[in-house]
Every structure is written in structure tokens, then in C-alpha cells.
Design brief:
The chain is of the alpha/beta class. The protein contains nine helices and ten strands.
């Protein structure tokens, strides 16, 4: 494993060297609000209190976190200028996402069903080059690009193809939203058809479908396995997650795994009784060590891998 990476990483405060990332959470949210669309089964939202959120993020920093990937895209309530201000306030590096989430959340004004794949890709590329919403804040990752069920709908396929074309043109890494099924493999097939190198793709929520065969199939295709539901309250899932990480490390895949928590509701914050943004370093990593996962593998998953994944040539 290499200790350095070439290229740069785009953060909300501008480009930095990959070595400046340090301990990185690969999928989180700081500002997210999904209140304004009807007929949904869930309402992910974080309280709109910058003092509370800054305190939560600062505790993660004090626990060793230095950077996080913030995957709130516009149809989830992305706030580029506020992310930049929060990065300046807490000292954390924040890598902002771009794109569209999943079909029930697409905003009417984005006209996704009326525009071509090429037009959507061009919109992403303009934002990647010039910044979002007139703020000059540039995305450093594409995603989270998602599906709503265990299959990719036709309109979601359009978004995936646009995201894939933007990835090829920009070189930015791409993260999917792939929950509760092996649908990440279908997403990967679409992205590959657009010329995306799987080594630039992380399959999000891989641990929500906790089956070793699925994870091995992702790795065999050359993509990253992202364990980003760490700390969620599904019965018995944390123990299975620990076992899967240990098994994949034992099989030699520590260099292809990423870790995070996907904080997106108040109940996940310390404010709401949850582990907060510090859950990975304060709870999950000690459990990994107790399970026999070596420190070298932990450094790979939390420091070296995000550095390699996020670096833009």
C-alpha cells in the first residue's frame, strides 16, 4: 500500500493535497432536508442549527476525524455556502457531492424526464468546473447517485448515465446509493457502459445488504465496497458488519474498503442520543481491533483508501 497519492482533492474551500485529508468519513450529511416532496416513506432531515452541528462535527474532529465526504445533492437540500462556512468554523475538510438522488426525490424543475443524458451531464460538468449555485464552491465527488428500490428505473438510468459521462470527463470519483439489495452491481453495469472505470466508483450502503458474495462481486468488478451505515440500529447488523469487514480484510481486501455512518437524521446525532459523527473512531474501530483486525488495515480503510479514491489526476 502506498502512503501518498498523486493529484488533488477538491474541497469546499478549494483543492488540497490528498495527504491533507487524514482520517476521512466517506459518506456523511451535514445539511439535509427532504420535507418538500409528497408520498415518501421516509423523511431524512437534520436540525437546522449550525451551533449544534458545529459542536457535533468538532467532537468528531477531536476523535481524530479530519475530513468527510458530504453527499447531500440539490434534491436533498444541499447548501454549498453553508458547507464552506462550516468547514472554516470546524477546521474539517469537506468534500461536496453533486448530481441527483433517486426518482421520488427528483425536483420537478430539474426536468430530468425531458432532458437528454448529454444535457444532464453538461449541467454536472459546468458545476464541477465553475462551482454550485453561484457560490464558486466546487464538488469533489459525484453522488450520491441512487435507486429507490432494488432495480434501476428508466429515469434513474438516465441520471446514472449522465453521472457516468460527467465522471469520465471530469475524473471525479462517484458514489452510489444502493440499499438493501445487490442493485449496486446493476448500477455499476450502467456506469461501465458509459466508460467509467470501476476503480472510480464506490458502491454505497454495501453493508445494508450484508452478504459476502455481493461484496466479493463488487470487488471482483474493481469497485470499492463502502460500509456507510455503521451505527444504524438494524437488529444484529453491527455484528454482521464487523464480521464482514474482518472477513474481507482477512481475504486481502483492506485496500478496497471505505467506512462511514451516513448521518442524516437527528436520532443519529449525539444531540438525539446517537453516536454522532464520531461513531466510527470511538465505537466501530475499537470493536474492529477487538475482533482482530490489524491497525494497518484500519489505517488503510480510514486514511489511505479515501486519499486514493478522492484524488483527482
Amino acid at each position: 500500500m502506498t502512503s501518498t497519492s498523486s493529484g488533488l482533492v477538491m474541497t469546499v474551500r478549494g483543492p488540497i493535497r490528498p495527504e491533507e485529508l487524514g482520517f476521512t468519513l466517506a459518506h456523511e450529511h451535514v445539511f439535509i432536508a427532504l420535507w418538500d416532496l409528497a408520498a415518501r416513506f421516509d423523511y431524512p432531515v437534520l436540525l437546522d442549527d449550525e451551533d449544534v452541528l458545529a459542536g457535533e462535527l468538532s467532537r468528531a474532529r477531536d476523535a481524530g476525524v479530519r475530513s468527510l465526504v458530504e453527499l447531500t445533492v440539490p434534491d436533498m437540500g444541499r447548501a454549498p455556502a453553508r458547507l464552506r462556512a462550516m468547514s472554516e468554523r470546524t477546521g474539517l475538510n469537506i468534500v461536496m457531492g453533486c448530481g441527483w438522488y433517486r426518482a421520488p426525490y427528483y425536483r420537478t424543475e430539474d426536468l430530468i424526464d425531458r432532458r437528454s443524458v448529454g444535457e444532464l451531464a453538461e449541467q454536472l460538468l459546468r458545476e464541477i468546473a465553475d462551482g454550485a449555485d453561484g457560490t464558486g464552491v466546487r464538488p469533489g465527488v459525484i453522488g450520491e447517485i441512487g435507486v429507490h428500490r432494488s432495480w434501476v428505473t428508466s429515469i434513474e438510468e438516465r441520471v446514472h448515465r449522465a453521472a457516468g459521462r460527467a465522471q469520465v470527463a471530469s475524473g471525479l470519483p462517484l458514489i452510489t446509493h444502493s440499499p438493501l439489495s445487490p442493485v449496486g452491481l446493476d448500477q455499476l453495469t450502467i456506469l461501465e457502459a458509459e466508460g467509467v472505470d470501476p476503480a472510480r466508483v464506490a458502491i454505497g450502503h454495501s453493508d445494508s445488504y450484508p452478504h459476502l458474495r455481493y461484496h466479493l462481486d463488487i470487488l471482483a468488478r474493481g469497485a470499492w465496497v463502502l460500509f456507510d451505515n455503521i451505527g444504524t440500529a438494524y437488529p444484529n447488523l453491527e455484528e454482521r458488519r464487523l464480521g464482514l469487514v474482518r472477513e474481507l480484510v482477512d481475504r486481502g481486501y483492506a485496500h478496497r474498503l471505505l467506512l462511514s455512518q451516513d448521518v442524516c437524521t437527528d436520532s443519529q446525532l449525539e444531540f438525539g442520543g446517537g453516536p454522532g459523527y464520531a461513531g466510527v473512531p470511538t465505537r466501530f474501530l475499537p470493536a474492529l481491533r477487538a475482533a482482530g483486525v490489524p491497525q494497518e488495515a484500519i489505517i488503510a480503510m480510514t486514511v489511505e483508501n479515501p486519499r486514493r479514491f478522492l484524488a483527482i489526476a
